[in-house]
Design a protein that fits this description.
Blueprint (H helix, E strand, L loop, with lengths): L6 H27 L2 H29 L6 H19 L2
Helix pairs in contact: 1-2, 2-3
Length: 91
């Protein structure tokens, strides 16, 4: 009857729940503030949370799969994540 979750799965899910909760909190705050300038500041602050969550979640997932995939494939995934972050953060 018990479902045992892998530690990596549990960690990834908890991080995503935290991230989603922050998004919902920000949405409620934007509605409460009712000011476009302040809402833009709140929305911009979320951009600081997204990339670290993506990186940490990816690292947790890769550590959970470390024994199943080769080092070169792990490096390719990390390079891909780096490219995504660079593309989002560059002007």
């Amino acid at each position: 009857m018990f479902i045992f979750l892998d530690k990596a799965i549990l960690g990834m899910a908890l991080l995503r729940i935290l991230s989603g909760s922050l998004e919902i909190f920000a949405a409620v705050l934007i509605i409460k503030l009712n000011d476009v300038e302040k809402a833009l500041i709140v929305n911009s602050s979320l951009a600081l949370v997204g990339p670290p969550i993506l990186l940490i979640t990816t690292v947790i997932g890769l550590t959970g799969m470390a024994d199943k995939i080769s080092l070169s494939k792990i490096l390719w995934v990390l390079i891909g994540v780096g490219c995504i972050i660079y593309g989002v953060k560059s002007n």
